[in-house]
Design a protein that fits this description.
With 278 residues, the protein is of the alpha/beta class. It has 10 helices and 12 strands.
Amino acid sequence: MRVILAKSAGFCFGVKRALDIALTTARTGKKVYMLGDIVHNETVVKKIEGSGIKKINRLNRTKSGILLIRAHGASLETFTKAKRFGYEIIDATCPMVKEIHKIAKGAQAKGYKVIIIGDKKHDEVHGIAGQLKGKALVIDGIRNIPRNKLKRIKKAAVVAQSTQNLKKVLGIVDILRKYIPDLLFFNTICQPTRTKQEEIMAMPKENDAMIIIGSKKSANTKRLYEIARSLNKNSRWVNSRREIKSSWFKGANSVGITAGASTPEETIQDITSHIRSL
């Protein structure tokens, strides 16, 4: 059985950069805090906790604490409040997410209503919306498009969460164009996500089985699995070698493997080696 690992499997640039910044900051010996997990992966979270960085649910006044802004970014309110409370801020927001912030704020300054296509509960979406004055309109799927609200919008600028499915985003934009006379669309899906999606559109057709590696908390891993499953029913989503069953590969001549942007290299190698040994 041939085992083919996707070239794009695993950490993207933004996640790797955020982890490097976090671990470097932890080595300063200062108290370091984060609002939530640095990425959506249990193995990575344990590594960060082991470095001494503490996850907190809310900001408290401090005289010597560092607030580490995660790869997903944060709202302007979080930055303002952290400075007021005395935190030193280390910003590990992905540069590509920062670019979305810039686009959204620029569009709003020109009088455009900002529409974000993304998961309503995702930290990145909260961070984008939190850059703006007033509420942004967040759309998470074609079925949830608020058509009555759209009729009242004359001009809008659309951005997308960086890890969204491009096909889904374009489908929503096509509908928005029918309602909004002046619509600007900025394709802010990042290049690592596009590369992963290009590979996942091809690999399930080229292999008898597909393994998608990543945490069940990871939105971008979930999207990879959904695409793979739609193209090849023999697609599985796992986060450790213990979940793998040899029966999945019965009669398979080849298996394709990919992993979400928050999946560490050691997890990918462990699972890949295990499958090769079957």
